[in-house]
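Review this:
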Amino acid sequence: MLIRTVAASLALLVVLAVTGAVAGPAWEPEPVGEHLRPATTSTAIGGTTPGAGAPGDYEVRESPVTVRITDDVEVGGLLREPVGGPDGRPGVVFVHGAGTGKAADAFTLAATALASAGVTTLVPDKRLDTYSTRHRDYEAMARDYARSVEYLREVPGVDPDDVGVYAESEGAWVSPVMMVDDPRLAFQVLVSAPVVPPRQQAAYAVDNYLRNTEVPQGVFRAIPRAVGMRLPGGGFEYADFDVRPWLTQQEDPILAVYGTNDASMPLEQGARELMADAPDVTVRFYERANHGINVETPDGLVLHPDFAADVAGWVLGLPGTASAPPQVAGDQPEQLYLAAPVPQPAWYGDGDWLVGVVVVAVVLLVAGPALLGGVALARRRPGRPGARLAHGLRGPLTGLGAGAVVTTAGLVAYLAAVARLALDYEKDALVVQGGWVAVRVAGIATVVVAAVLVNRLRDTRGRLVAATGAEPREPEGASAVVVRVAFWAVVAGATALLVTLAYWGVYQLGI
C-alpha cells in the first residue's frame, strides 16, 4: 500500500506541476543593460537667473478657493501666493497622484516652498465622483484639471502665459494630455513619472517589492497571472493607458525628477523614454528620496533639501533652464529590470472565471458533507437501512476536501502577509520562506491523501456505496444516489481547488 501511495502521489504531483506550468505565463523580466549615468552628483539646475527667487524669499498667503468643474460639480482648493511677489510671476497647478487627493493634505511642502520663492501655486481637490479604483479616465481628468488652470490664470499677479503643471505619479499620465489640449500651458514638472502604462508599472513595482522581501522564486509566477488577467467584475480599462502618444506632441520644457529610493517606478526607463519622446527634458535623481521626493530624518519625512530650490530655480529661470546642461544629474539610479508588457494568462485570464471556479468549488465542498450528513441522519430512523460510503473512503475523502480548503486558505493568507511586508518594504524570513514551505507542504499532504483515495477506489473496484445491512451488493435507491453525488461533489470541488493552487505555483518543481 505504501509503494502504491507514493507512486500515485508522485504521478498526481507531476500532473499538477505540468498543469500549473502550461496554465499561464512565466515571469522573466529583462535586466537593464546599460544604466543611465548622471553627469554630476549635484542636482543644481543650469541656466538659472541670478536673483530670480529662492524658497524662503517671501511670506506665503494661503487662501481656500472653489473651482467650478461643470455646471453641477465644483471642487475646493488651496491657493498659495508670495506676499509682495512681483507681477507677471509664474503659476503652477498641482495634479494629484493615485488616491483621494484632498488639497489640505497634498503637496503642502512643495506648494508652500514654491510660493515662498515667488511662484503662485494652486492645489485643487481631486474630482472623485468620476474616479474610483475600478474606473478612471485620464483624458477626462485632464479636462477637469484644466478648470484649475483657467482659475489660476485669472489670479492677480500671475502671468496667464506662464502657467504650468506639477504632476506626481499617476498625475504624470494626466498632465501630458493637458499640455496637448492646452498649448498655452508653459511647462511641466513631472515627479516620479511612470511613463509606461499602468499595468506595466504595477507589475514592475510588484516585482521590485517581492525581490526586496526576498520571496522564493516560485512566488514570482503570480505576477503576470495576477496583474495580467482581467480583474473580477470588469473595469480597470485604464490599466493599459499609453501616455506616449501625448508625450510625442510635447513642445514645452519638462523637468522630470525621481527619488532613487523609489522602488515603485522604473526610474531610468521612464527618464529615457521622456528624453526620447519630448524635447527639452531635464532629469534629476535625488539621493535617498522616496516616491514623493521625501527623505527620512530623525524628525520624520521631509522634502529632499535640494528639491524645492531646484524646482523653483528651473521654473523661474525658464526659458534659460529648459535646455541648460547637464541634462541628467544627481544620484546614480539602479533600476534592475525593465518594465514591459505583461504576458496575458492562458487560463484564468478572466478574473470572473477564476472567482467563479473557486466559489463553485467551495459550494461543492460544503454540499458534499451536507448530503452525507443528511443520509446518515436518515439511516437512524427505524426501518430505513439506507446507504453509506464504501469502507475506507470516508477518511481520505474528508482529508482531501479539508486539505484543499486549508491549503487554499493558507495560500491566500501567505500572499496577504507577503503583500503587507512588500508594501512596508520589510523582510521576515520566517513569514516569507517559512510560510511558502508551509503552504507547499500542506498542498503535497493533500495530494498524498488524494493518492490514498485513488488506491482505496481501486481496492473497492470503483464501488462508492455500501449498504448499512448485511446485503453484499452495492445498494440502489435514492440514498445511494445521494451518497454518490456527495462523493463526486467533494472530489470535483477539491480538484478545482488543487488545479487553482497549481496555477498559482504551489505544485511547481523546485522552490
